[in-house]
Amino acid sequence: MKTHSNFHPKNKHKSGYDLESLKSVFPELEPYVFENKYNKQTVDFANPKAVKALNKALLQKYYNIKYWDFPERNLCPPIPGRVDYIHHVAQLLEASNIKKDIKVLDIGTGASCIYPLLGHAEYNWHFVGTDIDKKSLSNAQHIINKNKLNDFISLRQQTDAALIFKGILNEEDQFSVAICNPPFFKSEADALEATARKLKGLKAEGDQVVRNFAGTQNELWYKGGEKAFIHNYLYESSLYKTQCKWFTTLVSKKDLVKGMQVSLKKLGVKEVKIIPMGQGNKLSRIVAWRF
After folding, report:
1. What is the DSSP letter of 31?
2. What's the CA gap between 205 and 34, in Å, rounded?
3. What is the pLDDT, as a whole number, of residue 64?
4. The pLDDT of residue 278
């Protein structure tokens, strides 16, 4: 089994997938498992249904999430990369001596509610998830209800797509950390082009471009792309600096980091951390700051 040594040491998936045991807890995975030319069991990562079945199996086996479903149009998040973010954030909080009653604000929680599910399963954290899409929130709420997690995860709708904290945070809200997986693309065309490249990498055949992780507009693109979203987030964090001990975000484009550092300095932050993060073959990073 291949080890993804760039995953966090606490990541349960750093040694790849034990497909036999995953099939035993989640038999619906069986039809998607096959032997590749190296006689190794694998699944077709270019097939959205296979990816979803694998994720359901992982959530059931490792995180005790018995029910996890959402419409085909929504983003299907890869579990190992998502839980990696959670482990890095846990390490950040521990290093800052933030160890008790941890409450997390998840910006853009999506229909899958994935970060709250993983953060609660691994660390018993409490979450408030936000989103602008009413349908996504109602789906996330259904997942919370089915897994009896109402005491740990609550949701709030952001009614203005141009805002992040305003209209979400009350004066008495106090969070240990905010987490965010921002929309990476400027437009649908931008998103489809990236998918075509990715599928070419997965050597998928056929002309039709299907995103293997799916995704709706507000999950994948934002006017001005990742850069515009993140700079909006940085600015708004300075308006709510006393209500959150740490602010963090994933940053897919390395060249955005320098500009972020300049902006954060202007906003008067006390500390900035850049945490490198490997996600399989892809390198990403978390930028964290506090006032």
Report:
1. G
2. 17
3. 96
4. 74
Helix axes 257-266, 225-239, angle to 10 degrees: 20
Of 14, 31, 33, 144, the residue nearest 80 (C-alpha): 14
What's the one-letter identity of residue 26?
F
Question: What integer is the mean pLDDT of 217-233?
Answer: 68
Question: Cβ distance 262 to 227 under 8 Å?
Answer: no
Q: Are 144 and 118 in contact (CB under 8 A)?
A: no
Q: In 3D, which of 180, 130, 145 has the Cα closest to residue 68?
A: 145
What amino acid occupies position 23? Answer: K
The total number of residues shown for the chain amounts to: 291
pLDDT in tens, 273-291: 999 987 656 678 999 999 9
The model carries a pTM of 0.85
- What domains lie within the chain, and their CATH numbers? 73-290 (3.40.50.150)
Distances (CA, A) of 146 to 5, 6, 139, 143, 149: 34, 34, 11, 5, 8
Distance of CA 80 to the CA centre of its chain: 10
User: DSSP readout, 151-194?
Assistant: TTEEEEE---TT-SSTTT--TT--EEEEEE----BSSHHHHHHH
pLDDT tens, residue by residue, 117-168? 999 999 999 999 999 989 999 999 999 999 999 999 999 999 998 899 999 9
Placement of tokens 């579990």 in the chain: 79
Nearest one of 193, 195, 186 to 217, comparing CA atoms: 186
pLDDT of 93 > 80? The answer is: yes
Residue 239 near residue 165 (C-beta atoms within 8 A): yes
Residue 121's SS3 state is: helix
At 109 the three-state DSSP class reads coil
